[in-house]
Amino acid sequence: MKKKKKYTPALGHDQFTNWYDQVIAWTMPEEEFRTKLIQQLSPNPSERILEFGFGTIENLIYIIRAEPNVNYSGLDIDPNVKVLAKEKLSKLKFLVKAELSLYEGGAFPYEDNSFDKVFSCLVFHQLQREEKVNALKEIYRVLKKDGMILICDWDKPSSFLTSLGFYAVQVLDGFATTADSRKGILIDLMKESGFSNAKHVDVINTNIGTLKYIIGAK
User: Fold this and answer.
1) In the structure, what pLDDT confidence band is assigned to residue 198 with cuts at 50, 70 and 90?
2) Model pTM greater than 0.70?
3) 3-state secondary structure the chain
């Protein structure tokens, strides 16, 4: 049997996972960064959308506010976070077409050219360089022609203060995985993975780092 790939939990350690939503709310401008994410995603019911790293499905809740009939699939590697997501999903007071899947860290469990859009939020900074490249290649594979990728994640700090604050993220999630974020190379990895017109489209400076929005096309 294939051994499951080691992964970084939502806050760096499994025992902190239950506190993930609270920590995000305490440390970040959550309404602003999630609203900007969904504005860039611009979901509509005719599209099939995949979230790479669904976490506790907070982004799905924001999507539903914009488009209640969204065709949503979520993929994550962390079984603990899936438990939280399923509990939250069961408490929503409206019908949601959402498919949440776990995977082993390699190939995505979807056919080629399956999705119109794939997005990811605060996931890539937790991946080793090899894992980032593999995830980007898999996203490229499952996207339809002319499909869009949208990534919201930590990037090269834009000031001394955001650089200083980003050390808190690095302590929790690991210096090895977050070094690429500090260098700001994610957009280059996207281009190397085949995405065209990869570019930064928005930015938010927070107390714990610089959050950038990057889009690209297949």
Assistant:
1) very high
2) yes
3) CCCCCCCCCCCCCHHHHHHHHHHHHHHCCHHHHHHHHHHHHCCCCCCEEEEECCCCCHHHHHHHHHCCCCEEEEEECCHHHHHHHHHHHHHCCCCCCEEEEECCCCCCCCCCCCEEEEEEECCHHHCCHHHHHHHHHHHHHHEEEEEEEEEEEEECCCCHHHHHHHHHHHHHHCHHHHHHHHHCCHHHHHHHCCCEEEEEEEEEEECCEEEEEEEEEC
Residues above pLDDT 70, as percent of the chain: 88
| Number of residues assigned to the chain | 218
For the stretch 98-113, pLDDT in tens is: 899 999 888 999 999 9
Structure-derived torsion over alpha carbons of residues 131, 132, 138, 141, reported in degrees to the nearest 10: -150
C-alpha 152/C-alpha 130 separation (Å) is: 19
CB 210 within 8 A of CB 162: yes
Task: Look up residue 211 and give its amino acid.
Answer: L
Closest to 52 (Cα-Cα) out of 146, 194, 153: 153
How deeply is 99 buried, as exposed, middle or buried, from its count of CB atoms within 10 A (0-12, 13-18, 19+)?
A: exposed
Per-residue pLDDT of 69-100, as tens digits, reads 889 999 998 888 888 888 888 887 666 678 99
Other beta carbons within 10 angstroms of residue 116's beta carbon come to 18
